[in-house]
Amino acid sequence: MSRKTIWGLSAGIVVFLLFPVFLPRFYVYLVSIILLYGLLATSLNLVLGYGGIFQFHHAVFYGVGAYGTTLMLTKSGLPAALAFLTGPLVSAAFGLVLGVICIRLSKLYFGMLQISLGSLVWAIVYRWYGFTGGDDGIHGIPVPELLASPKSAYYFTFIVTLASLFVMWKIIRSPFGSVLQGIRDNPLRSEMIGINVRRHQLLALVLAGFFAGVAGSLFVVVDNTVFPDMLFWTLSLEIVIMCLLGGWFTFLGPMLGAAAIVALRTFVSGYTDYWALVLGVIMMLVIFFLPNGILGYVEERLKGGLRAPQSEER
Amino acid sequence: MNAVYSIIPAGVLSQVFVGLSRTTILFIVASGLTLILGVLRIPNVAHGSLYMIGAFTAFTVTQLSGGGTAGFWTAIVVAPLVVAFISLIAERGMFQFLYEREHLMLLLLTFAFSLVFGDLVKLVWGTEYKSVPVPPFFQGFVPLFGGLPFPLYNLFLLIAGPVVAILLYLLTNKTKMGKIARAAAVDREMVGAVGINVSRVFAVVFVIGCYLAGLGGVLVAPTVSVTLGMDHTLIIEAFLIVIMGGLGNIWGALLGALIFGLTQSLGILVWPKFGIIFPYLAVVVVLLFRPTGLLKSTW
Fold it and tell me: Does residue B5 have a pLDDT over 70?
């Protein structure tokens, strides 16, 4: 890492740390939501952009993580710290189960089966009033006192997001990450040189599930609610759009996309009920004119020419 | 007929018939989806929205015509055509430029369409529930196996399903258009190379597939409450059916719809609260043994 990036990063961190000091309460909440959605989108990008796996139903892991944490907080007398660990771990385990079922299928089959099985989970959560609160969800979740105020929730979200991003960055830069990108670019050749393709992909799915679960738990801290729509498939495709808009072969792209979409949604919803219409039109424009996303486009311009999207950037 | 009852309880039998009428709707919608998937390779998420538009259009048409039997027949003719027209605009305006893109992009584009369509429906018809009356001609019940009442409309559905299946079979296997479309599904470049306008073939197939979604929407309208969000559950079911049957295979869609409809209706008998999980379990079992679906996929 060059000195310049380190300075940039530190400046960014300081700005984020200062937000709650001068921003009104609502914006602190908004930035927290942006951060956790950014984490969610980045965790999806781990498998979608870097792994080339059609993870179409990522929201399931987000929702399962949130519900896992919530149910531990409300139904068990165990310490809260344990609950925050349980959520992501349940998501990771869930990633393993869904992965084992789906991984044998090729791209589109994988994605469609995952959407379908994820919808089953949604249906169960939606109907199981006794356990998950059904379609009402669970409100007023008792989070530890330390995290109860919006400010402390913000700082918690920021630190956890930053740590998770750092770990994911390290994962992508590790030998495992390189193998994963190799598999994305040429699965057949990877298999020929003796890489266990499925095992690598499965591990990527588990990791992505884990970090999605972290994002879900953060939502519990920030909003103190869970509801079944958190694992509805339309949210999953919205997350994919976040990755796409920001640039899905870049590390920070999904974060940027999440920020853009969450901010826009908050803004547009203030004026009209037809947010979905606006989002749909934005998606069409992005697909047509910015297929590599904002950061992808910027990078392309900076390098002054066409870049093969798969090339490993250093 | 009492012999039948001694083997199968009446409740089970009536659920089987309920499941079969559901199968008809599922098949008609899924066959359109699988047609588009097989030939154009577009996983059309907007298919569910077109089905919803079909149902809402049927509501408007029957209301304008006073709710009579004639109004219903008009709806069956008009509503799918409206849907087909909308899809034609979408195909010529957008999809035709993106056939070379990856599946992910196409899926997202169709999702964008489903968002737009969903909000347009909200804009035009509002958020209230709508109900389409069962046409007078199909009101009432027929006795089934000695006295078990079965709604006449569902019987009509049971007939409509096979009719659509046979028509689709004739269209894809006996007409020149269908043969070209099947060839394009296997190798679109080769079809283009022998001088056929592949783009136009694709447009026709896309419109036919969407027409089927609209038809499914009209047919389902009298049996359910027509509401926003009816697209979201249906598209997932249709996806499952198509995967189970093998992408692009119309008979696979029929088989998948049968399995899905029957496990759904019988599952409710077994476990009323969570009957919904049985069709999904069926899909998992099928895919564990046959990862690419029951019948041969065109992919």
Answer: no
A7-16, A97-106, A305-314 — which is least confidently predicted? A305-314
In a domain, A256, yes or no: no
Please count the structural domains in chain A: 1
A233-246 tens-digit pLDDT: 888 888 988 888 88
B-chain residue closest to A55, CA distance: B104
Nearest by CB: B291 against A104, A273, A274: A104
Does residue A124 lie in a domain region?
Answer: yes
Is residue B298 in some structural domain?
no
Partner B contacted by A122 (CB < 8 A): no
Q: Mind spelling out the 3-state secondary structure of chain A? A: CCHHHHHHHHHHHHHHHHHHHHCCHHHHHHHHHHHHHHHHHHHHHHHHCCCCCCCCCCHHHHHHHHHHHHHHHHHCCCCHHHHHHHHHHHHHHHHHHHHHHHCCCCHHHHHHHHHHHHHHHHHHHHHCHHHHCHHHCECCCCCCHHHCCHHHHHHHHHHHHHHHHHHHHHHHHCHHHHHHHHHHHCHHHHHHCCCCHHHHHHHHHHHHHHHHHHHHHHHHHHHCCECHHHHCHHHHHHHHHHHHHHCCCCCCHHHHHHHHHHHHHHHHHCCCCCHHHHHHHHHHHHHHHCCCHHHHHHHHHHCCCCCCCCCCCC
The average confidence (pLDDT) of chain B is 84
State ipTM. Answer: 0.82
Q: Does residue B27 register a pLDDT over 90?
A: yes
Look at residue B296 and tell me if it is in a domain. no
CB contact under 8 A, A280 and B280: no
If contacts are CB pairs under 8 Å, which of residues 262-301 in chain A contact chain B? 273-274, 276-277, 279-281, 283-284, 287-288, 291
- How confident is the model at residue A311, as a pLDDT? 43
Mutation target to probe the B interface, by most B beta carbons within 10 A, among A287, A290, A292 is A287
Using the Cβ of A244 and the Cβ atoms of chain B, whether some distance falls under 8 Å is answered with: yes
B294 contacts on A by Cβ (under 8 Å): none
